[in-house]
Design goal:
Layout (H helix, E strand, L loop, with lengths): L2 E4 H8 L15 H14 L5 E10 L2 E11 L4 E8 L8 H22 L3 E10 L5 E9 H34 L12 H14 L2 E5 L6 H16 L3 E6 L2 H14 L13 E3 L3 H4 L18 H13 L6 H11 L3 H8 L5 E5 L1 H4 L4 H9 L3 E5 L5 H8 L2 E4 H10 L5 H16 L5 E4 L4 H19 L8 H17 L5 E10 L2 E10 L3 H10 L2 E6 L5 H8 L6 E4 L9 E6 L9 H18 L3 E6 L2 H14 L5 E3 L6 H9 L7 E6 L17 E5 L8 H14 L2 H18 L10 E6 L6 H4 L8 E2 L5 H6 L5
Parallel strand pairs: 1-3, 4-5, 7-16, 7-17, 8-10, 8-11, 9-10, 11-16, 18-23, 18-24, 19-21, 19-22, 20-21, 22-23
Antiparallel strand pairs: 2-3, 3-4, 5-6, 12-15, 13-14, 14-15
Helix pairs in contact: 1-3, 1-4, 3-4, 4-6, 5-6, 6-7, 9-10, 10-11, 15-16, 16-17, 17-18, 19-20, 21-22, 24-25
Keywords: 4Fe-4S, ATP-binding, DNA damage, DNA repair, DNA-binding, Helicase, Hydrolase, Iron, Iron-sulfur, Isomerase, Metal-binding, Nucleotide-binding
Protein name: ATP-dependent helicases-like protein
GO molecular function: 4 iron, 4 sulfur cluster binding; ATP binding; DNA binding; DNA helicase activity; hydrolase activity, acting on acid anhydrides, in phosphorus-containing anhydrides; metal ion binding
Length: 769
């Protein structure tokens, strides 16, 4: 059995040394790097060859890669590296790694073409000036072969360990048994669909109700498929911490045994956010500032070897290992992502523009599978990933404290910023094209700040660094600007002055996400509220052959009474008139069946409009409310009041933390009132979104307003029935819920009563009118 490894991966394992040092970064973007390579190649003479595919074997290793360029006239093999600024500031260990890569490519070329010697050239291309710096050396084939074999020899023991692990892992997964006595209703249907998608190499959209065990129901079949489909890794991606926690718990359950009492040889890694894993947030990421960056690569091998043997590489366990070896926990986790079988992390680790897991997949040519939990969140999260904002107030604060060397580029940017406001009469304006003068000034200011930061090694992270990161992120999105996005300017008054916030706002993330899905062998996106297959395919960029399955609910209509209160309108203009009938309805239902209820509203303002009169009219009914910006302890206290045998009504905002992802089974929650369709606010941004979606897909209103709104409604209603023994009631308060178009987006197992008043109201008269 052969172990395939990319040249870059091999050298990063064997030739990295010294400090972790990010001062020569942020490096040029991927687009800038590609353009730089193309520019260098365009300057070369006729016959120059780019992207030379090479590979060679060493024992069980197959080392492969693509050399950047070959000039047959000079017999020169080139490794092209794009950079920005003074090359003298490049850390020595970066260049050491670049030479190692080039020497390995040199041997691969000599072996492939029978060369006795070759001229190796490191070509550093400055994207700002267009200047090349060429460092060249002539090496004989024999010395390059020795260097190649040394690198392979250093990796060989690890490769043999990896091969043995892979064989043991695949054998165990082939024999893996379902961890429970039987599947839950609907769970088998979901598991079979995931298996079929993996077997056919397709993507799958699975609309599956809460309560069937979706986490185990997706992980189990995908792990079983790994041996037959030769899957290298499974990435479980979630939007929120509870989803990742459930995945880790399910994986611990699955890894607990293989039927013969032996634990499953499965490496499970939890990727934590940088701000949560960083031990020294007040320090910069280099050895002169952070002690955990000093000598990082010298201590990494021992830390990696210990961590790889952990039964679970979760955040707490990695921190313990990292601190024992005095390395950064965050960057240790990034390294272990190369060697894990299952990685559990946030959406951004695969879908973001600079996503680690996607980059590793592409660089190492791995066969990976994706599980995207609560996938109804991916659309808005992806829009955020491919949007960027800059606020003029940030620039003004920066100018006041900036060093003299930065005054001129920051002043030029300030003038360009003021120019955006000059002809704008309205508070908000959207543009289909980027403003050239502003973008040029921004690029120059960001480059100047980046150069300054690189020359200030002891300077801790601060406003300058944040501005640099924000500006470069803005510039990266500008490189791919198109009909999927717009450029908008929002004006506000601050201390008598007009200030502008500029935004590259992504509206349709499909063009950005499509290459991500194409890179995976299979992907399953699952949620109780996907909306429709066409909506997901269009907006997320899924392949045309993506499969769709709607899993039968384990619940029956008798468990949940669903009433549409069609005599009430919750439209903005009608909210004042809606308060009294909503108050009477809620009080009547509580008297009929005392217990814990959640009442959802479209905004905090509407929530307070109803909560105040309710508390005044019915002081005997306990009431508690969600408030803006609640801390974690406050959210926990809010949920702690939902106890079995308790009674009261909690007021919350639809789409907030209490509308999805919380579990209140049995008597902890017996009903919900939803006084809104959840439609996004009608404002200039959403209206532009509707226009763009109409142009692209002919479904502007549905895609911009209706589907996102009803997803929130169904998620909120889903808090009521969590298990087979639960019984409850949901009131959908708005006349629009009776429309066929709206009804078609509600769960099929609901039997919705659209009578003039719910049964309890009919007994007492039609005072809900």
């Amino acid at each position: 059995m052969k172990y395939g490894i990319a040249v870059r991966t091999l050298c990063e394992f064997t030739a990295r040394q010294g400090d972790l040092d990010l001062r020569f970064t942020p490096s040029p973007t991927a687009q800038q790097g590609i353009a730089g390579h193309q520019q260098v190649a365009a300057r070369r003479r006729a016959g120059y060859q780019s992207e030379i595919a090479l590979q060679a074997d060493f024992g069980p290793l197959t080392v492969r890669g693509r050399a950047d360029g070959w000039d047959p006239a000079l017999q020169q093999l080139e490794e092209i590296k794009t950079h920005r600024g003074d090359l003298a500031r490049q850390p020595a260990n970066h260049r050491h790694l670049h030479w190692a890569q080039l020497k390995v490519y040199g041997w691969l070329l000599c072996q492939a073409r029978g060369l006795a010697e070759v001229r190796l050239a490191l070509v550093y291309y400055d994207i700002a000036s267009g200047r090349e710096t060429v460092l060249a050396e002539v090496h004989g084939a024999d010395s390059l072969r020795v260097f190649f074999e040394e690198q392979c020899g250093r990796f060989l023991a690890w490769a043999e360990q990896e091969l043995a692990h892979r064989q043991a892992r695949d054998a165990a997964l082939a024999a893996l048994a379902f961890p429970h006595a039987d599947f839950r209703p609907g769970q088998r249907m979901l598991a079979e669909a995931v298996w079929r998608a993996a077997a056919s190499g397709r993507c799958l959209l699975a609309q599956a109700p809460t309560g069937i065990g979706k986490t185990v129901g997706t992980l189990f079949p995908l792990l079983k498929a790994c041996p037959g489909q030769r899957l290298d890794q499974v990435f479980y991606l979630a939007a929120k911490t509870p989803g990742r926690t459930l995945a880790l718990e399910a994986l611990r359950l699955l890894a607990g045994g293989t039927g013969d009492g032996q634990p499953l040889p499965l490496r499970v890694l939890e990727l934590a956010a940088r701000e949560k894993a960083c031990e020294h947030p007040d320090k910069a990421c280099h050895g002169e500032s952070c002690p955990l960056a000093r000598g990082f690569y010298d201590r990494l091998p021992a830390a990696r070897a210990e961590a790889i043997g952990l039964p679970a590489q979760d955040r707490a366990a990695l921190r313990e290992v990292a601190l024992r070896h005095q390395v950064c926990p965050y960057w240790l986790g990034q390294e272990l992502a190369r060697w894990a079988d299952v990685v559990v992390g946030d959406y951004n680790y695969f879908f973001d523009a600079t996503a680690l897991l996607h980059a590793l997949t592409a660089a190492q040519e791995r066969r990976v599978a994706l599980l995207v939990d609560e996938a109804h969140n991916l659309l808005e999260r992806a829009r955020g990933m491919y949007s960027a904002e800059l606020d003029e107030a940030q620039l003004l604060a920066l100018r006041r404290q900036a060093p003299v060397a930065l005054k001129r580029p920051l002043e030029r940017l300030a003038r360009a910023w003021r120019g955006l406001q000059r002809d704008q009469a309205d508070t908000y304006a959207a543009h289909d094209e980027l403003p050239g003068p502003f973008m040029e000034a921004l690029q120059q200011a960001a480059a100047a700040v980046a150069d300054h930061l690189a020359e200030a090694p002891a300077q801790p992270p601060g406003e300058l660094q944040q501005f640099c990161f924000d500006a470069l992120a803005f510039g990266r999105l500008a490189e791919t600007f198109g009909t999927h996005s717009l450029f908008d300017v929002t004006l506000r008054q601050e201390r008598g002055r007009t200030r502008a916030r500029v935004c590259i706002r992504n509206l349709i993330p499909a063009p950005h996400l499509a290459p991500r899905f194409a890179a995976a062998h299979t992907a399953t996106l699952f949620s109780a509220t996907l909306g429709s297959a066409a909506f997901c395919r269009d907006t997320l960029g899924l392949p045309a052959d993506t499969a769709w399955v709607e899993v039968n609910s384990p619940f029956v209509a008798d468990q949940l009474a669903v009433h549409v209160v069609r005599e009430v309108s919750t439209r903005y203009a009608d909210r004042g008139r809606s308060v009294a009938p909503i108050v009477r309805l809620m009080a009547r239902q509580w008297r009929e069946r005392p217990g814990n209820y959640l009442a959802f509203f479209s905004s905090y303002d509407y929530l307070r409009q109803v909560a105040g009169p309710f508390a005044d009219a019915h002081p005997e009914i306990p009431v508690w409310q969600q408030s803006p910006g609640m801390r974690e302890s406050e959210r926990e206290a809010f949920l702690a009041r939902f106890v079995a045998g308790g009674s009261g009504i909690a007021f919350a905002v639809l789409g907030g933390p209490f509308a999805e992802g919380i579990d209140l089974p049995g008597e902890r929650l017996v009903g919900a009132f939803i006084a809104t369709l959840g439609l996004p606010q009608v404002n200039p941004v959403n209206e532009r979104l509707k226009q763009r979606l109409q142009q692209a897909f002919g479904a502007g209103y549905d895609y911009a307003y209706l589907y996102p709104g009803l997803q929130k409604v169904v998620q909120a209603a889903g808090r009521v029935i969590r298990g087979p023994e639960d019984r409850g009631v949901v009131y959908l308060i708005d006349d629009r819920f009776q429309r066929p178009q709206v009804r078609g987006l509600l769960p099929r197992w609901w039997q919705v009563d659209t009578g003039r008043a719910p049964p309890s109201a009919k007994k007492e008269g039609a005072d809900v009118d």
